[in-house]
Every structure is written in C-alpha cells, then in structure tokens.
Amino acid sequence: MSDKSKPLTILLAVDGSEHARVATELVCSLPLPNGSHVTALAILDTPHTPRRQLLLAALTQTQEQLNKYGLTSEIGMLHGHPAEALTSFADEHQPDLIVLGAKGLRATLGILLGGVAQQVIEYAKWPVLIVRPPFMPIKRVLGVTDGSTFSQQALRFLQQFPLPADTDIYLAYVVPPMPDYQAGSFSHTILSGSDALHPIPIELLEEVENWQNEAEETGKNILAESQETFSKLKFKVSSKLLHGDAATEILNYSKELKIDMIVAGSRGLSPVKGWLLGSVSHKLVHYADCSVLIVRA
To answer: Second label for 230, Cα 20 to 30 Å away, from 77, 135, 157, 195?
Structure first.
C-alpha cells in the first residue's frame, strides 16, 4: 500500500459473532478510497453441519452492511482449518489488509474461532487488523517503533492507512532495561556479617549511564524523524520516550491515552537490538483493550 488514494483490497473474516460484526462496522467506518473492494469470508471447518446455514446468513448480512456504506464486496465460504484457509486465500489474492474480529479481554484469550487470529498473525504475510468490541471509530492511534526495519515499515503502512482526517497520532519508543548485572563476573567482595556483598564497579556504573544516554538519544532521533513525516501528512502528532518492559509500557500508555488502535511491526532487529519481537506483538494482541494492527515484512 504505497498510495493513499489507491483502492484497497480487504479480506474480512466472518463467523456470525459479535466481534466479527464489530470488525465489519469498523471497515465500514473507514474513509476507504474509491474503488476499494472487500471480500468477506467464512470458514466451515466441519462439513454438513447446521453451522453452514448460520455462516451463510452472516455472510449475507455482512454484504448488506457493506453495500449500505457503498463498498464493493463479494462473499465466499471456505472449507478447512480456519487459519490455514484464510492465510492460503490471502497468499493467493494478496490483499492490502486482513481484518479479524476478536473476543473481549479474558484471562485466557480466545480470538475468532478459538485462536485463529493469533495463528493468522503468526503466519500471514499481509498486515492484520484485530478488532475488539465494542465498536469505536478510530480517532486516536498509537504507533510504536524500536527503530528496526520491521517497525519502521509498520509506521510507513500507518502513513498510508485510510484514517479520518481528525485522527490523533501518538508515537512511542521504549528504552529497554539495561541487561542484568552479573555480580559473579567480578572477584572483589565485601563481607558484612554473614553476607557477601558484591559492589558494582565504578566503571560498570559509567557503562550503564553511557548505555542509557545512547539508548535515549537513539529513541529521540527515531521519534523525531517519524513525527516529522506524520506532520507533513497534516495529522496532529505527538511522541513520547518510554522506559521499561516494551509490552507493559505500550499497554499502559495505550490505556492512559484511550487509544483506539495500536500499530506495531511483528519483529525487531534481534533479541538484543530490537524489542518488537513476536512475544511483544503477541502480548499486544492478547492484552490490549483496543484494536491492534500488526504489520509483517
């Protein structure tokens, strides 16, 4: 998706549930470019069951809603394992976006047909938008980055995403904690009663301070560059440097701002240099109380 005026092709998963209906409502609320096309698909994993009629009814209802908003659409039913069927169809038709509804927050999260969305995020080659009820129009978006190629690509995708003109964009970079100090790597100890204390060497304290300063400077530069790009697109944009565990800080910041959609890449540079690894994006999908857009390279 390189041109904001270019028609989009969207793959919308339908299962007749409330969260799938909310996903449809969100698609209808987007200012999609003229000529955009939505393919609504249901997946029947067990043949010859009453569920077939329920899915057909849900597909018909979905198409009626899409048509009501003037969107060109078609419907279809696939057979097989839901995640495999969706990703295979996507690989064949190469949509700009896959949209899935997700159940509300639970201790053990279940997403669309028992975890299908999580599997689609893991294996699909295309951007995936996970939508949570209740329906909320997208007005406040949080884009997160760690400076990696993958996360920067997610922000570029967001720049082309069909957002309402009055959307507020928030950008965040999380400075990760310094790796744990290993006291055993130093031979010097101080005895205090029955305890052996391992003082942190001065040179290590200086190293920690230098590392922290460099990490913060890197984050500020990345945020400044990204903020400038979004400002040119006439969005109201602000940025913030966070410190700590990436997923925790992003989720807390999202709640603080009452974000409607989080946008993240699915993978970072490496376990050391990048924090937008699979585990972080998975946590965002699992625990965010808003919609989450995951962009893979």
So the answer is: 135
